[in-house]
Design goal:
With 87 residues, the chain is mostly helical. It contains three helices and three strands. The protein is globular.
């Protein structure tokens, strides 16, 4: 099962309930590399969101968005690592 197929299977309900239409299962490689370096894990349960609306304004380039509990935990860990580096 590919990552895209897994997202479709596990996250499609979340995406449709949230009204998210513009997303990609392909994550930007530089972002993935940075994510792995800072968290020690692959960003599972995360998609790249292009939707401008309900959750956030993702801008032109999009933004990561968690669609599973595991993805939410990992994304939170990544955001905390970024905040520590900025201080």
């Amino acid at each position: 099962m590919t990552y895209r197929e897994k997202i479709k299977k596990t996250g499609l309900e979340v995406l449709s309930r949230a009204g998210i239409l513009e997303y990609d299962c392909a994550l930007p490689q530089p972002w993935v590399d940075d994510f792995i370096e800072k968290t020690g894990a692959f960003p599972m349960g995360i998609i790249w969101l292009y939707d401008k609306g309900y959750y956030m304004d993702t801008g032109v380039f999009g933004a990561p968005f968690a669609i599973t509990l595991q993805g939410h935990i990992l994304l939170t860990k990544y955001k905390l690592a970024n905040e520590r580096r900025e201080k």
